Every structure is written in structure tokens, then in C-alpha cells.
């Protein structure tokens, strides 16, 4: 295990209101944008920083009908700043008075450990997009857990790279799910799973992993106490004997993932593919295509643009997407 310290911070703010909150994360972010337009958190929730931070530094969740705001590294101070100002949330058709809030700020996040940390998905993990979903359906059942373990490792490596975490050569993953049949998520036909997982990487509770995390999917919760867990191995300290951790050598059916191989795959798939369209186009086919595009724009608006945006997860944090989603 790499012994270099990590200074990555996280904060979780829970907003307690006078009524249960039955709104989406996008609607809550929309209220923040409307009521607190000058707060530093706004550029982190309206998509402005999407190209700068591929993994969101601020995440908003609705859990047990309560609002949770998670700030990571650069997002910590903006979240705490907003926390001090929230008194009323006005959604137009309903308003919520903030009766209390609490926060939990932690250091040394996103680093490797010499143990397996136990996590639970408290919202469905959308592991399968259209591409990986097609592959998942074609492989045999005995290969599917290995496939999901690899996807989980990819999720973790992506986050680690985003925060500049130093990774060991191997990541250990163990996905524990009650069913190999994914539940379809909305019109995108993504596949989601509920359950738990173990890995030798420290993740803050309430962050999201996988697809659709800006909409609240893939929220994880650590089954260990982060206040008593010590990264420095010391057998004399009883607090390290935590029920939410286990020794790698004692755990069965753990997948060993080579980090360098995952990184090579990512580089390969990130290369732009050459367009091999048939160059021979007739006048009639071009005219028909032009007519169809005009018909779509006239009758329905630019439907192509809307559909493309819905299908592309990388655009979920674009300013244009957020303007559409933040309707109250």
C-alpha cells in the first residue's frame, strides 16, 4: 500500500426542513441557483465547471426525503458557505423552512488502504450504459460478476485520477448483489443494481459512482466508522478492528484488477474514431435527409439535439442540460 498522505477533504451537509422533501436533485439545485446566484457553489452545480472537473465536486442528493449536499476538495468551502445562508427553499408550489442542518467534514479521502472497505449502495448503482449493457447481456452468468467487478474498478480509478490520488498496482473489488438481472433506468435503458461492494480504496460516504451520479444514482455508504478507521496499521489499537473492514487475504471471491491495464483500455477507447461513412451519396438521399431535418425542427424543435443530450452522460453537467433540468 502506498504510504503517501492524502489531503483531499470532503464534507456532507444535511439540511433538515419542516416538511419531507419530495423533489429531484436538479430541482433543488435549481432553487439554489435562483435564490443564491452569487454563491461560489453555483458554478459547481450549473455545469460551468464540467470541463474543469469531470467528476462533480458538489453533489446534491435526496435521501430519506432530506437534502444532502456533498462537497469534495474544491467543493468543500462553497458547500459550507451555502450552509450558513439557507433558511427557506421556495419551489413555487411549495416552500420549505430549514429548521436545522448538520455537517461532517473529513480529511484524507480517496486513498488506497491495506484492507477491504465495505460499502453499500443506498441508491441503485447504474453500472451499465448502452455499450456495457450490450456486452453484459451477451456473456455467461459466471462471467458477469467479474465484468461488474471490472466496471467498479474503472469507476474507482476514474475518481482517483480526478483527485490526483496515488494508486497501487492492483485494485481489489468484490461486488455483492442479490440478482444478476439489472433493473432498467428510465428511457436510456441503462442497467442498475442494488447491493454492496468491497474494495481497498477509501471513498467518502454519500458520493456517487457510475452513470447518472448527478441525478443521485450510485450513492455509496461506508459500513465502517471513518472517525475510528486508521490508515496506519497498528494492531494495538482496538478501534481498527472495525466491522466494516476485512483483510484482503481472508476475503474470498475478490477480483484483482490491474490498474495499468484499465488505464490502457481507457486511453484506447478515448481515441476518436475515424468517420467511415460511405462517401457515395445520391442527390435524392441528401434531399430526403435535409427535408427530414427541417420537418423535425418545424414540428418538434431540434429533436436530434435533445435526444443526443439525453443519451450522452458526459453532457449531464453542461450548462444547457442544467437549464432544462432545473425547472421547479
Structure write-up:
The protein is 29% helix and 26% strand. With 328 residues, it is of the alpha+beta class. It has 2 domains: 10-106, Alpha-Beta Plaits; 112-270, no CATH class. Strands 6, 7, 8, 9, 10, 11 and 12 form a 7-stranded antiparallel beta sheet that branches. The chain has a 5-stranded antiparallel beta sheet with strand order 2-3-1-5-4.
Helix and strand arrangement:
Blueprint: E1 10-17, H1 25-35, E2 58-63, E3 66-72, H2 76-83, E4 88-90, E5 95-106, E6 112-128, H3 130-138, H4 141-162, E7 170-176, E8 183-185, E9 190-201, E10 220-222, E11 245-247, E12 255-258, H5 259-270, H6 283-300, H7 303-311, H8 319-325
Antiparallel strand pairs: 1-3, 1-5, 2-3, 4-5, 6-9, 6-10, 6-11, 7-9, 7-12, 8-9
Brief overview, please?
This protein is 29% helix and 26% strand.
CA-to-CA gap between the ends? 47 Å
Strand content: 25-35%
The profile of the biggest β sheet is: 7 strands, antiparallel
Q: Output the helix-strand order.
A: EHEEHEEEHHEEEEEEHHHH
> What is the average per-residue confidence, as pLDDT, rounded to a whole number?
82
Radius of gyration: 22 Å
Q: Spans of 5+ residues with little confidence (pLDDT < 50)?
A: 228-240, 268-273, 276-285, 287-318
Number of domains: 2
Shape: globular
The percent of residues in helical segments reads 25-40%
Number of strands: 12
Indicate the multimeric state: single chain
Number of helix segments? 8
Structural class comes to alpha+beta
Describe the structure using short key phrases.
about 30% helix, alpha+beta, 12 strands, 2 domains, Alpha-Beta Plaits, globular, about 325 residues, 5-stranded antiparallel β-sheet, 7-stranded antiparallel β-sheet, single chain
